[in-house]
Amino acid sequence: MRDSFGLSKQFARHLVLVVLVVLMTVPWLPAFEQQDVIVVVGAPGEPEYATRFQAWTAAWRQAGERAQATVHLIGGETADQAEDADKQSLQRAIVAAATKKTSPLWIVLIGHGTYDGRTAKFNLRGADVAAPELAGWLDGCGRPVVLLNTAPASAPFLLAVSRPGRVVISATKSGRENNATRFGGFVADALGKPEADIDEDGQVSVLEVFLHAARAVEASYKQDGLIVTEHPLLDDNGDGRGTRADWFHGVWATKAAADGATVDGIRAHQIHLVPSETERQLSNDDRTVRDQLEQDLATLRTQRKTLNDDEYYRQLESIMRKLSAIYQ
Fold it and tell me: How many domains does the chain have?
């Protein structure tokens, strides 16, 4: 049986598989604009954590250099030791970067966190920063935000910071998962690891960093014969709920929310700290069109059960033709 465009259903399905691998391979923002990365190293407490946090921070600095991004380090050995200096520095850095550009503002929290049943905090030297405070500082941010809180008890930050146009990742699924986390180390590892490039497009997206790190966390606990005490979440649709890595096959979410909410992962896979050369060659206009088409594709996939085959493949072919034209 053939559809209205003369494509057999079998051929169309094969074409879908090929296109789905390709469609989500590039950022959703204009290329060549310098990104800003704020790396916050919290109070380590024990010496073993200081060493661990230093290694994770070094990986972010190296990735920032490869991306030709501006990396702003707060905390760490060389930072100002004055009372509340780290908290004030973080607020100033966010305010300064909030309206400068349309490229992503990355905020990476490396350290410990706490949750008292009401408020989650990230531990800094001096006064800690609470999730509502960080959310308030970002209220005036006119650019996309990528927040990675790799600390324990970090899930409430996801709910507080989540907004449309933002990608928020937490190391835990709740504030009560408050043991020391391994997630930050695997995140840092994914930044320069070819194996983290799940779709093999020559670049590692925020989604791929999340998936690689979350799966590595689970594997490490199992290898050590321990109960998994951290379950990372990713939110990029602005609903503040977050999605776990086990919802994904490859870079596609294979499960759907019971209420039909838009799945997470689309936007996160459109952002890369270090874009590929192919991505850099796209014009801003092409990227804008491409990003909207990817969103249209995601919407179409959620409607699959409500459309008959002819209508589904008609819309799918239309999107694929437009996407193909961008890369010609």
Answer: 2
Ranges assigned E (strand) in 164-297:
166-170, 233-235, 248-249, 252-253
Kindly state the average pLDDT of the residues 57-85.
85
Nearest C-alpha neighbor of 168 from the set 124, 121, 135: 135
pLDDT band at 278 (very low <50, low <70, confident <90, very high): confident
Instruction: Please name every residue paired with 234 in a beta bridge, in sequence order, or none if there are none.
Output: 169, 243
User: Do 161 and 58 fall into the same domain?
Assistant: yes
Do both 198 and 233 map to the same domain? yes
**What spatial distance separates the first Cα and last Cα of the chain, rounded to whole Å?**
30
E strands, the chain, are 36-41, 70-75, 105-110, 113-115, 120-122, 129-130, 145-149, 166-170, 233-235, 248-249, 252-253
The whole-angstrom separation of Cα 131 and Cα 6 is 54
Claim to verify: residue 10 and residue 146 sit in the same structural domain: no
In this prediction the pTM is 0.85
User: For the residues 35-49, what does the mean pLDDT come to?
Assistant: 95
Indicate whether 14 and 154 sit together in one domain. Answer: no
Is the domain of 157 the same as that of 240?
Answer: yes
Max avg pLDDT among 14-28, 79-93, 185-199, 297-311: 185-199
CA distance 298 to 280: 24
The CATH number linked to 88 is 3.40.50.1460
Cβ atoms of residues 129 and 88 within 8 Å: no
CA dihedral 278, 192, 138, 295 (to 10 degrees): 40
Q: Both 87 and 226 in a single domain?
A: yes
Range of the domain at 299: 1-26+282-328
Looking at the structure, do residues 17 and 69 belong to the same domain, yes or no?
no
Query: How far from 258 is each of 29, 253, 328, CA to CA, in Å?
Result: 30, 14, 39
Determine the pLDDT at residue 34.
87
Transcribe 107-127 into DSSP letters.
EEEES-EEE-SS-EEE--SSS
